[in-house]
Amino acid sequence: xxxxxxxxxxxxxxxxxxxxxxxxxxxxxxxxxxxxxxxxxxxxxxxxxxxxxxxxxxxxxxxxxxxxxxxxxxxxxxxxxxxxxxxxxxxxxxxxxxxxxxxxxxxxxxxxxxxxxxxxxxxxxxxxxxxxxxxxxxxxxxxxxxxxxxxxxxxxxxxxxxxxxxxxxxxxxxxxxxxxxxxxxxxxxxxxxxxxxxxxxxxxxxxxxxxxxxxxxxxxxxxxxxxxxxxxxxxxxxxxxxxxxxxxxx
Length: 250
Prior knowledge:
Blueprint: H1 2-19, E1 25-32, H2 45-55, E2 59-67, H3 77-85, E3 88-97, E4 100-108, E5 114-120, E6 127-133, E7 138-143, H4 148-162, E8 169-174, H5 182-187, E9 191-193, E10 213-218, E11 226-232, E12 244-249
Parallel strand pairs: 1-2, 7-8
Antiparallel strand pairs: 1-12, 2-4, 3-4, 5-6, 6-7, 8-10, 9-10, 11-12
Helix pairs in contact: 2-3
């Protein structure tokens, strides 16, 4: 009996080693916070942080973040949210703006192993892809151009960058594109765009009529994973976008 138990234990260990270990789950969130400027004209880091804390994500892709600009004097928006959520901040400045920076970011429960910014050229305002490496997966934030042609070009750059990654990898952000646009068709060549349970609309927050915020998984990465649940959070005043949350297994 002991011999059979030992054989079974060894077999299980070999199986998990071959598969890369047992399946794991993560809760991923994306939120265009508009510098925490609500639809009521109030800037409140506390209430945006409350939305994040209530969702309890492992990682949050964030867009529209000022850092030390004169628009929000002496304020680092991402740092303010990190202090209120207890998460690690990673910032990627896209442009110099009003004496400081403006760009995108990420908050994570685990300390990132590495991160890097990839420039996404746009004719009106440069954009970014932020690639954050966590122990078991990559989570990436972006905010695509308002110009449709630029979004298509940016999609190709993003696909090229994800082809270099060696773990399960996920992309999220404000894509400024509805689901049937050319940029989204280009992204679907390499990504599964998660469907949202209970409705897809994310903008404007108080009465959404379009879907432009997404969480996706890269289909070609090793142990790519699957979505368990994905939904829009009903936050109607904290920003002009509603946040989205996906539970993924990889």
